[in-house]
Structures are given as C-alpha cells and as structure tokens.
Design a protein that fits this description.
With 269 residues, the chain is an alpha/beta fold. The protein has one domain: NAD(P)-binding Rossmann-like Domain (Rossmann fold), CATH 3.40.50. Helix content is 49%, strand content 14%. Strands 3-2-1-4-5-6-7 form a seven-stranded parallel sheet, sandwiched between helices. Strand 1, helix 1 and strand 2 form a beta-alpha-beta unit. The relative contact order is 0.14. Bound molecules: NADP nicotinamide-adenine-dinucleotide phosphate. The site of NADP nicotinamide-adenine-dinucleotide phosphate has 33 residues, from helix 1.
Length: 269
C-alpha cells in the first residue's frame, strides 16, 4: 500500500517539540491538513504562523493529552474543522532520566500518564472517526527503550513498552475497521527533548547531538506512514542495539550492568 498525504486530515500531538515540528513541516509540505496539539498555546501559535508560510492548512488546539476534556475538545475541533480524521500521530511524550532507586511513585505515574494513558485514551476517542477516514492509521512514536529497557530510563522504558504492546494488540483488532497501526521506534534525536524531562540525574554520557536530526526522524516517520510500515526502527544506534540485543540478550544485559556498576562505583563504596 502507498498512502498519499495530500488532503489527509491529521492530528499531531507534541507538535511543538523538536520532532513534532519536523513532522508537522513534512506533513504540511505533502499537502496534509494538520491539527497541532501541545499544551503551550504560544508555541502552537508561533508554529502555525511558520507553517502557514509553506501554505499549510493547519489549526492549533492547545491540549494536555492527560486531560480527558482536552482530548475530547481536540477530536471535536478536528471533526468540526476538517470534517473527519484520517491519521492520528501520538507523538507527545516526556522523559525522566535517573535510576529507580531514587525515583518516586509520582514520577512513575506521571511518565505513564503522558506517554501511555494519554495516547491510548486519545486513540479511543479518535477510533470511530478514523474508521470513517480515508486510508486511516494510528501512529505511535515509541522509542528504542520500548524494545529494550535501558538503565536510567525505567519509567520511560515501561511507558514505551506498554505503548508498543498496546499497538501490537490493536493491529489485529483495528484491522476489522481497516485502521492501520504503525509503531515508530526511534533512537537518540537531537530535538531538545531534555527540556521536558521530569528529572535529569542519570550519569551516562548522553550525546543527543550525535543522534538523528529531527528532520531525519520526521522523514523516516512520514515514509513509514506512506509505506504503511508496521514497525520502523530509526537511527543507527537504535538499530545496532536492538539487533545486538536480539541475538545476544544476556551479553547485552551484562554489558549494560557493567557500565552501570562503573558509573555508580563511587556510590557503592
Ligand atoms: N528526542 C529523542 O531522543 C527521542 C528518542 C526516541 C523517542 N522520542 C519520542 O519522540 C516524541 C517527541 O519527543 P521530542 O524529542 O520532540 O520531545 P520534546 O522536544 O520535549 O517535545 C515534546 C512535545 O510534547 C509536548 N508535550 C509534553 N507533555 C505534554 C502533554 N502532557 N500533553 C500534550 N503535549 C505534551 C510538548 O509541548 P508542551 O510542553 O507545550 O505540551 C512538545 O510539543 C516523544 O514521545 C519522545 O518520547 C524522542
């Protein structure tokens, strides 16, 4: 299947982040109509202005994905404005960088609320409209941490694993409505992701600037939508890590544990 984007009616959450902006620009230049959702109204307005320069048919809908009222308003606004919905891109997400031993219940609940319950409940509201859409699909921007749990990312990994698991179950369930479910599994991307982290207490030498650009990732996501690819791993290091882990899972865990022990040696002594 080759899914055209011209005239497609799209909801994009997390639209104002590094990755969201790049996806929005890509969609708009392909002729899609896009509802941009994020919490901060000023950033959305600024994005709308920028995208209109490319002739974009876009609306801004300030939305906290954790709020049932906001989710409802977002879907209603899109149906009222575009007359339907063809693509839902669940991209909004937050991170929390630090070990479980120093984490809290509040952090676990917050990360899962934004990264899992938000997209899941938004999808529930969108599904009846997608069912009447044109070549409809749900896209879930997960993470390589959703296929391999990573130290210092326990809540984040759990939230993305949950999303990937839900997507796998939905894939067969939604087939009877002809709604496709596409999972994106990106590696590190130089997007400014850090600014939304709940905490930044990890010790590894993370170099997001060596990862993909948001533009590279957006291109991969748009290709996955056009090519209807069930699951797409994006980024060299994500592909390498996940492949290595598939063939050598125990060695991968041993190497990760060795690294953690080294980084935290001073705290153990
Ligand atoms: N960057 C990476 O290395 C990387 C790697 C793998 C996967 N990802 C995933 O890619 C997605 C986008 O990340 P990014 O790097 O673009 O992050 P980002 O720059 O921090 O952007 C996050 C976006 O989500 C929005 N957002 C945060 N909390 C929200 C909420 N409760 N309701 C609605 N919107 C909310 C933010 O806007 P407001 O704050 O205004 O709401 C912003 O638009 C996330 O799901 C992330 O987990 C990122």
């Amino acid at each position: 299947m080759s899914r055209g984007l011209t005239g497609k009616r799209v909801i994009l959450t997390g639209a104002t982040g590094g990755i969201g902006r790049a996806i929005a620009k890509s969609l708009v230049t392909q002729g899609a109509q896009v509802a941009l959702a994020a919490r901060t109204a000023e950033s959305l307005d600024e994005l709308v202005t920028a995208l209109k320069r490319y002739g974009g048919d876009v609306i801004a809908v300030p939305t906290d994905v954790t709020s049932p009222d906001d989710r409802q308003r977002l879907v209603e606004k899109v149906i009222a404005t575009f007359g339907g919905l063809d693509i839902l891109i669940n991209n909004a997400g937050i991170g929390s960088w630090g070990h479980f031993a120093t984490s809290t219940e509040e952090i676990v609940r917050r990360v899962i609320e934004v990264n899992f319950f938000g997209p899941v409940e938004l999808t529930r509201l969108a599904l009846p409209h997608l069912t009447n859409g044109v070549e409809p699909c749900v896209v879930l921007v997960a993470s390589m941490c959703g296929r391999k749990g990573m130290p210092a990312w326990p809540e984040y990994s759990a939230s993305k694993f949950a999303l990937v698991g839900m997507a796998e179950a939905w894939r067969a369930e939604f087939a009877r409505f002809d709604v496709d479910v596409l999972t994106i599994v990106p590696g590190m991307t130089d997007s400014g992701f850090r600014k939304n982290w709940i905490r930044a207490e990890g010790k590894a030498d993370l170099r997001f600037e060596r990862g993909m650009t948001p533009g590279d990732l957006a291109t991969g996501i748009v290709r996955a939508i056009q090519g209807n690819r069930t699951e797409t791993v994006l980024g060299g290091e994500a592909r390498r890590l996940l492949r290595f882990n598939r063939y050598f899972p125990r060695l991968t865990d041993w190497l990760l544990a060795r690294k953690v022990k080294k980084l935290y040696a001073a705290e153990n002594s």
